[in-house]
Sequence to fold (530 residues):
Amino acid sequence: MTPFVYADHAATSPLSPGARAAMLPFFDVEYGNPSGLYAFSQRAKEALEKARAQVAAALNAPADTIFFTSGGTESDNWALQGVAQSPRVKGRHLILSAVEHHAVLHTARHLEKQGWEVTLLPVDAQGMVSPGELEKALRPHTALVSVMLANNEVGTLQPVKELAALAHAAGALFHTDAVQAVGRIPVDVEELRVDLLSLSGHKFGGPRGTGALYIRKGTPIVPLLHGGGQERGRRSGTENVAGIVGMAAALTEAVAHMEEDNARLTALRDRLSATLLAIPRSALTGHPTARLPGTASFTFEAIEGESLVLRLDALGVCASSGSACSSTSLEPSHVLLAMGIPHEIAHGSLRLSLGPRTTEDQVDHIISSVTRVVADLRAMSPLWTG
Amino acid sequence: MLYSEKVMDHFTNPRNMGVVENANAVGQVGNAVCGDIMQMSMYIDEDGIIRDVKFKTFGCGSAIATSSMATELVKGRSIEEALTLTNKAVTEALDGLPPQKLHCSVLAEEAIRAALADYYTRQGVDPEPIVGCTAGDCSCCHQH
Fold:
């Protein structure tokens, strides 16, 4: 039987058993609308507020700074568009890194069409933004800086604390897309001093369709969704109580086990990297040490990423690639290109992202499968002369 | 599923992969920057029959599958028959390709033509009137 090894936790993660158990009553037993006045509804409201306190505690934030959304994409859209539309925001200049998720990049492009000026910060070969580059880009009319905490493709961690301090010194607000970071590495909004932070539930064992935006008190931001006035008038729409409860349970669990999970994940990932880098003309992409514990990303020369992923699938390994052919755009990943990786090498990218339940045996299977598939595809490639 | 069963079959078990040792017709199209390169090598006998054909391809699943299918469609055929091979025929033989992957079938057709052009060039015959344009970059990704 073909084994099944899930190595795409950066894309999504399995619902944790604790989160599942916490959610179940809210589908068909405790189904009250939290806006109701009767006791049945108020129980749902209490569950919602408990979840808010749990998420807030995980970020070292006050509960009333957490606003639930439908996920990372909505949170990113809200942060950028909500600030842009606020009458209290005067400047019309936005700065972001060149390696942001499309939820940030494409929102910025949308704002650009509405007259905003957008500056993209370059990254170094490891995918890191330099504070010096931000300093050069800041202007008196810069309203907002948005730099992710951890990159989704290569796992590089950004110096967000330093970048946020620079933005504030120039009078600009700071947003961080922490979708890949929350639940995986310690995130403390007081330490980072960010004004806005996006997170997504399904990256750390919560359900899909859940997320939150942290909004520091006093941050000028208007709602994106108007309606019944839920989330204290800032995000309308009947709350996804089951989902929110599940996300909060998963996050609490992830934070409680983070230290031991990460020690184990880092060891697994380092063994995976060291073994795969023994393959000739392979390279690790992203920062060698300042990176997410479970994410390892590579390039293998002379082969193409979609072929790699499909052949791995046939061996039971789920992974992803930033190659052009694995997208619909026919352009390789903007992240790899921004890191200065040439097109022809970026086509051969592979991202393997491990999770808390990944085992030693599974990593062995990934190693033998990748080694075999790379050799098979190279035997087929006119570019391979080794 | 992104691909048809036939595409997956040719991708997983490619036919005629490799290089023909006594090749007298070799063509290569595409480029590494675009993410796909196809190389075709053939042995064509005195009667103008493609006795052997093999491919090597750098590219995605459909690039490998279309190369494999193209070799099957021209093997044992005459040059004249091979020249009538269209990307549409390759695509149909594979039970279709996703729209963003159609350029792979164009590349397969061009790779066959490029090999046939090389055959004529080696014989001292100008290939252009017979084979047509084989510049090879007509299907570069940037035009799609």
Summary: Residues 136-144 of chain B have pLDDT under 50 and may be disordered. Residues 102-122 of chain B form the longest helix (21 residues). The first strand of chain B starts at residue 25 and ends at 31. Residues 89 and 105 of chain B are 9 Å apart (CA to CA).
